[in-house]
UniProtKB/TrEMBL annotation:
UniProt name for this protein: Histamine N-methyltransferase
Subunit note: Monomer.
Binding-site residues, substrate: E69, N324
Top-rank taxon, per record: Eukaryota
GO biological process annotation, one example: methylation
Classification via InterPro entries: HHMT-like, SAM-dependent_MTases_sf
Family annotation (Pfam families): Methyltransf_23
UniProt keyword terms in alphabetical order: Methyltransferase, S-adenosyl-L-methionine, Transferase
SUPFAM superfamilies: S-adenosyl-L-methionine-dependent methyltransferases
Molecular functions (GO terms): N-methyltransferase activity
Length: 335
């Protein structure tokens, strides 16, 4: 899993969203929030990878080096997204965009560029929703390096999706969005279905909501279906795939367009005992800190067997290539 994971990578900002819950609370209330979170984490013999931000960052960078995730997203943005965006706004001179979990903005700006190509005369107001101050800073720096973005007004919201929803309701906002994107972020909301429902209701009549997650047909999907209870700490993240979101949408009678983005991840070193690269990859795959050292022998053997199974990976020229496919869902305004 990963980026705008963050970038797409917002994964390394999960603990930060819990910290933001402390703002404005009394000392005692803050202590209760911290105690609740870490009692939940420590109750499990397996410690979440996000508890060690340095280790997480290192694992995520390795994931990006070893996978084609960003490339497959960029291919989609530049080849298929333009057709999706063509009908957005219906000729309006001004377009409203919301990026939920925008990270450092790289993927956001590529999508905004395609929106501008399709609607060159329109100005854009872009609501950036991101809980990490560092990621927002990086986003602002990136924008400052691109004077061609003068047609965009950026509104910076250092908050989680849930906090943005609360803020929107308290302000009784009536503004509608022409394009909303949620890239690799639904893992980090308490109720993905409710989050989708809220943002869908913000769409204008011709608006589009874009969701990118790991595919239900990916190796992630098989791994989570098999070891959800052992590996997923639901106080921190949800083991959710596009298959789960499709089921939710269908249960609500919501139509959607679906796209599959082929992506691969080389996990060969995971099967060499004591290999530092392999251990780091295993931490990322399982989201468990020091998985090789802390998981039971039975769990470790089961995970390794599954990762090598044809349902998750293929072997080619001596390498083990994990199915890292992503899924894209596009939802329209619902009357």
């Amino acid at each position: 899993m990963s980026a705008k994971r963050r970038e797409t990578a917002r994964r390394c900002e999960v603990l930060h969203k819990h910290r933001l819950r402390l703002v404005g609370r009394s000392v005692n209330a803050r202590a209760r929030v911290v105690d609740s979170l870490f009692q939940t984490i420590m109750a499990s013999p397996l410690k979440s990878l996000v508890c060690d931000d340095g280790r997480y960052q290192e694992a995520f960078e390795l994931f990006l080096q070893r996978s084609s995730e960003h490339q497959c997203m960029q291919d989609f943005i530049h080849t298929q997204l333009p057709d999706i965006l063509a009908s957005v706004g219906d000729g309006k001179p001004h377009l409203n965009v919301i990026g939920v979990g925008s990270g450092a903005g790289l993927i956001d700006l590529e999508m905004l560029s395609e929106l501008h190509q399709k609607h060159p005369a329109a100005t854009v107001e872009n609501e950036v929703v991101e809980p990490s101050s560092q990621q927002l800073h990086n986003y602002k720096v990136l924008v400052g390096q691109k004077p061609e973005l003068g047609f965009i007004k950026f509104n910076w919201n250092q908050m989680t999706a849930a906090q943005f929803e609360e803020h929107w309701r308290l302000k009784k906002m009536t503004k509608k969005a022409d394009f909303i994107h949620m890239v690799q972020m639904l893992y980090y909301v308490k109720d993905p279905g409710a989050t989708i429902s809220f943002f869908q209701h913000l769409l204008s009549e011709r608006g589009k909501l874009l969701i990118i997650l790991v595919s239900g047909q990916s190796g992630w999907g098989k791994l989570w279906r098999t070891y959800r209870h052992q590996l997923c700490n639901t106080e921190i993240s949800q083991c959710v795939t596009t298959a789960d979101i499709k089921s939710y949408l269908e249960s609500k009678g919501v139509s959607y367009q679906s796209y599959e983005l082929p992506s691969q991840l080389d996990i060969t070193e995971c099967f060499t005992e004591g290999d530092q690269t392999g251990e780091l990859l295993l931490d990322f795959l399982t989201e468990v800190l020091d998985f090789s050292k802390t998981a039971s022998a039975e769990l470790k053997a089961g995970v390794l067997d599954l990762l090598r199974h044809p349902d998750c990976s293929v072997e080619s020229q001596g390498r083990v290539i994990f199915n890292n496919n992503l899924g894209v869902l596009v939802i329209d305004h619902q009357s």
